[in-house]
């Protein structure tokens, strides 16, 4: 594991466990009761958690940073184009063509589902 930082705390009322590799979940184990999981900013997490979460439950941490990375790559490409140059080969981001291919895949998946999982060719 790259980091695998884990924190476990045990006391007279039970224990809690958290793992850096699955940071959106806190496992709570009250003594004599079933273990349950609280999700980041989800039900049972309390108002304090909501105040320090920038995104709603269900979106992983890094969600916003992922978009920031795309915007940065696009900005590099625009900057190069304004100078009359091509962007570095390392600059990468999804294009309109990628979006069209993604939609074709989704259409094929829906069609396959409607035909009880029959293999469906993805139209280019």
Structure explained in plain terms:
There is one protein chain. This protein is flat. It folds into two domains: 6-52, no CATH class; 63-114, no CATH class. It is 36% helix and 20% strand. By secondary structure, the protein is an alpha+beta fold. The mean pLDDT is 90. Strands 1-2-3-4 form a four-stranded antiparallel beta sheet, with no helix packed on it.
For the termini, the CA-CA separation is 39 Å
| Spatial order of strands in the largest sheet | 1-2-3-4
The coarse overall form would be flat
Strand content: 15-25%
Q: Count up the helices.
A: 3
Number of strands: 4
Runs in which pLDDT lies below 50 for 5 or more consecutive residues are none
What is the ordering of alpha helices and beta strands? EEEEHHH
Biggest sheet architecture? 4 strands, antiparallel
Structural class: alpha+beta
What is the mean predicted local confidence, pLDDT? 90
